[in-house]
Write a structure and sequence with these properties.
Elements lengths: L11 E2 L18 H10 L4 H15 L5 H11 L6 H8 L4 H10 L7 H8 L15 E6 L12 E6 L5 E6 L2 E7 L4 E6 L12 E5 L5 E6 L4
Antiparallel strand pairs: 1-2, 2-8, 3-4, 4-5, 5-6, 7-8
Protein name: Potassium transporter Kef
């Protein structure tokens, strides 16, 4: 396993290294300000949502699939609650909508089918993961700098829910829910008992760091 990428000294996803830019054109019956607010409430990044849906609508050549594309863009923004709906909607789209979906996710149109197929068994996959040595995202951070933890994380275990882990930081336990685009930390009042058998995805804690990493080992 290689060392964690130097670029992430703060919590974040490696798929989000480029800064979001752009805003969607007005669409009849759609209030993008309300949509951004809903994305924020769901744990997503409103700026990334705006850039994602703007690119999707341009690529699709219009707003015929605006509801589906908005849900896909919300997932891409890091809002985990939209994951299942977004993946289901991709399968209902025609060719123009599929090009919009690929743009919303930051993919080339020819990458969309492989991405959807791999997401069925590996929620942390995206085309750039191999170049990141299997690292997906960093979570936590020092509370004094806006992070979550007052002590460095020391260990993590997979839980029975897909994409869920328990992480111990100091004498506290935290639950992490994550996938390729988003992550959410929540405090636990006790050590969890729904620990699952270790799989390809694991938590990596580095000495003297307040970050914990989601890492997926390469297939043998």
């Amino acid at each position: 396993m290689g060392g964690a990428p130097e670029v992430n000294r703060l919590p974040g996803h490696l798929a989000d290294q480029s800064l979001p830019s752009g805003a969607p054109e007005p669409v009849a019956g759609v209030d993008w300000t309300v949509a951004e607010r809903n994305v924020r409430r769901a744990g997503g990044d409103p700026a990334r949502f705006s850039a994602s849906i703007a690119g999707a609508l341009r690529a699709a050549g219009g707003a015929d699939d605006v509801t589906a594309l908005a849900g896909i863009a919300a997932w891409r923004s890091g809002a985990l609650a939209y994951r299942d709906d977004a993946l289901a909607r991709i399968g209902t789209l025609g060719q123009d909508g599929r090009e919009g979906a690929a743009a919303a996710l930051g993919l080339e149109p020819g990458e969309l089918d492989e991405f959807v197929e791999r997401q069925g068994t590996d929620r942390f996959w995206w085309p750039g993961r191999a170049s990141a040595s299997g690292y997906v995202c960093a979570v936590g951070g020092f509370a004094g700098l806006g992070g979550a933890w007052v002590a460095p994380p020391v260990s993590g275990v997979a839980l029975s829910t897909p994409g869920a882990f328990a992480i111990r930081a100091g004498d506290e336990w935290w639950r992490l829910d994550a996938d390729v685009w988003g992550s959410q930390l929540s405090w636990l009042d006790a050590e969890p008992d729904d620990v699952a058998q270790a799989g390809p995805a694991s938590i990596v804690c580095l000495p003297d760091s307040y970050l914990a990493w989601v890492h997926v080992r390469a297939a043998a």
